[in-house]
From TrEMBL:
The gene is pstA. Pfam families: BPD_transp_1. Gene3D superfamilies: MetI-like (1.10.3720.10). The keyword NADP does not apply. Residues 66-272 form the ABC transmembrane type-1 domain. InterPro entries: MetI-like, MetI-like_sf, Phosphate_PstA. Belongs to the binding-protein-dependent transport system permease family. CysTW subfamily. The keyword Transmembrane helix applies. The chain crosses the membrane at residues 12-34, 62-91, 103-122, 142-160, 181-202, 250-275. It is a multi-pass membrane protein. Keywords: Cell membrane, Membrane, Transmembrane, Transmembrane helix, Transport. This is Phosphate transport system permease protein PstA. It is found in: Cell membrane.
Length: 285
């Protein structure tokens, strides 16, 4: 048996293993979704969305958790998105290529893999205690902003790298300054890739629970937050609270809340994908 035959056997075995793992993963996902949908769909109605939390499963709702999650996500995007894009532009377009720049780039990439609970400890000490923000929505948003910043910075840099140099050179040839070229040519051309980073950042922020628990997010909040300094809870913490209850009704509530969370995530990602595809069509090279 020669080397080419051995390589073909290895490739076939690898493809078979990949297909088997994919099929097994899809099967597990299908079973999980069926279990969640069969338990939770019957519980979803207007009362479930608009009711406050309750110790009685039949009257408990997700209103406070849903509003808290929306507050957290909106503030996180407002804080992290401009800072992440600005940092990506600076590192790619203005930063000097030296050892310090390489050190910064390596650490930004490493920060994306840091466990989220570490960010929670950092947010608790820096924002909650030193800055005196307590366990407020603003503390949670700032903490999640630190968590998703590496994703936004890396994706922004990669999107900017994908813009051909010939376009920049053409802009310079017409007399545009560096900032005019970046603002009018590079950013619009790379905005689809930047939105991809935002999709990943939102998807990670939506599912985070550990850092919010560390900074002091409450499990039971009997009021809806009205400003960034209010105490809060989010849907993932509410789900965690319900699944730990022994009553079967709370398990049903948790399944319904998971469905709402999935729909919210799909909606946010769908909007971002539509915007990304629209910008990609306008700026296709």
């Amino acid at each position: 048996m020669n080397n080419s035959q051995v390589n073909r056997i290895k490739d076939t075995a690898f493809k078979f293993f990949a297909i088997a793992c994919t099929f097994f993963g899809l099967l597990v996902l299908a079973v999980l979704l069926y279990d969640i949908l069969s338990k939770g769909l019957t519980r979803i109605d207007l009362d479930f969305i608009t009711n406050l939390p309750s110790r009685r499963a039949a009257s408990a709702g997700i209103y406070t958790a849903l509003l808290g999650m929306i507050w957290i996500l909106v503030l996180t995007v407002i804080i992290a998105f401009p800072i992440g894009i600005a940092a990506g532009i600076y590192l790619e377009e203005y930063g000097k290529r030296n050892r310090f720049a390489n050190f910064i780039e390596i650490n930004i990439a490493n920060l994306a893999g840091v466990p989220s609970i570490i960010y929670g400890i950092l947010g608790l000490e820096l924002f909650g205690r030193i800055l005196g923000l307590g366990n407020s929505i603003l503390t949670g948003s700032l903490t999640l902003s630190l968590l998703v910043l590496p994703l936004i910075i890396v994706s922004t840099r990669e999107a900017i790298k994908a813009v051909p140099k010939s376009i920049r050179e053409a802009a310079y040839g017409l007399g545009a300054t560096k900032w005019q070229t970046i603002y009018s040519i590079v950013l619009p051309s790379s905005f689809g890739g930047i939105l991809t980073g935002l999709i990943l950042a939102i998807s990670r922020a939506v599912g985070e629970t550990a850092p919010l628990i560390v900074i002091g997010a409450l499990v039971y909040v009997p009021f809806a937050p009205t400003n960034p300094m209010d105490e809060f809870t989010v849907l993932t913490i509410q789900i965690f609270n319900w699944v730990t209850r022994p009553q079967a009704g709370f398990v049903t509530n948790a399944a319904a809340a998971i469905i709402i969370l999935l729909l919210f995530t799909f909606m946010m990602n769908g909007i971002a994908v539509i915007l990304r595809n629209r910008y990609n069509k306008k700026t296709r090279f």
